[in-house]
Amino acid sequence: MVRTFFRKLLRYLSSEDDSDDDLDEDVEEQCTRKRRKFIRRNHIQGHERLYRDYFAENPVYPSNLFRRRFRMSRPLFLRILNEVVANEPYFVQRRDNIGRLGLSSKQKIISEDSVILDCFVNVMSWV
After folding, report:
1. Is the pTM of the predicted complex or chain greater than 0.70?
2. Does the N terminus or the C terminus of the chain have fewer Cβ atoms within 10 A?
3. Rounded Cα gap, residues 47 and 33, in angstroms
4. Please, which domain of life does this record's source organism belong to (predicted)?
């Protein structure tokens, strides 16, 4: 991309034509950036739904469905969650540069379910 710009610049400088149109268009093409598309995701609503479904005092899903979904009991999950948050700063909920809250610790742990939780279940079964 940069090479083509410089080739066109050299071609322009070596040509005897005084038209700046082609060069101006090329400079504008080089200077414009593509912006990433922002997808609005409601992390807070997702956390509230997760809490209401599995972790509230009277959850929507009983403990046997929690065990089936996460392959462990709720107290074990919460113990793992507390240990991971205490020892790994990635899993702490943070704000982004604009000030919006990111994913909660529970959301991050659950999204890493297949990797992290399986490892912890295996380790806890050895103990």
Report:
1. no
2. C
3. 34
4. Eukaryota
